[in-house]
Design a protein that fits this description.
The protein is an all-alpha fold. The chain is built from 18 helices and no strands. Helix 14 (266-282) packs antiparallel against helix 16 (300-326). This is C6 transcription factor.
Length: 350
Amino acid sequence: MADSSPDDISAQAELKTGQKRAGAERSNARQRASLACVPCRSKHVKHPVSLYYANFHVAHSWLPPRGILQTCYDAKPDDLRFLMAVVSYIGSLYSESGGNPTLRQQAYSMFNKELPPTIWSVQALLSLSVAAFGQLDDYGPIFERACQLALNIQLQHKRTADGYKDPVLAESCRRTYWGLYIHRSLLAIPANQLHSLLFPVVTSSGTELPCEEWEYETGNIPVSVSLEEYNLSDPSRDFSSWAYFIDIIRIRDRSVAPSLQGLGKAELFLNTANQQIDSWRLRLKNWKRDRVDDDGMVDTILYHALGVSFSQPEKIWRVLAHVEGSLGKDAPKAMGFGEAEDTSAFYGSD
């Protein structure tokens, strides 16, 4: 493999039987101090890492479950130093406005240095770009660097995740790849050649879809499903919340990109988008929408996807009204889409 991730670590031993998803971490009184920044070990009841997993991770769950991350950090602390600096900074955002300035400075100073081409670096950059977006910082260069490193380690290929001996680390790899895909759209990162290489057409060799949160947290990773298999599946079949989230982003991109390239046909594109979104919602079973963990936590990944689905038709109207009124024929390029960009191969057809 192209990165130095700890394939040889027997991380499964760290998992506890019956461990819940991120909510279980919040109720666990024993904190692992070696994962916390040194200044915080004696000053806070809740370490930044605890706050990261209790708040950020539940909606952006590409890092391994905390016990697995601890094992990896204990084995190779130098490999995870940047990631843990980012995790600590993001965690501090939930305890003080703007985050801890020392932790912020540490994370960004490491970002400005050369980073090893590893999955840990990609995860750190992806998380930092999302946090920067929330703090109104310049998130674009951070995200683009994450994409470049992801391409360097060939994260778009199934074989990269399959190269991990530990199935939980393999799943973390898949989640990181799809996290990049989702947030390229949500953060409105303009499309470029790098993205077309990282997010290629649908193939059997592409990175497979992530599993459910409770499967990830307990280490019971099922056989992965490809995007191609999802496209061809019966609508009655159940899939993970991540799979549905990825699909609504595909619908979002199918709706916005053609709309900007076909100005004057707004009603047609909006009707098509509404039909696709309605079909997407019909795939969600009631048990999945209504599921609540023992600790009261709802399925944050699914609810984020639902939020995208309900906001999309209105957003299309607003975007089209703006570009038709002020940008005219230059709208596709201005909004980050090439004049002749064809996204149908990657996104598939419904």
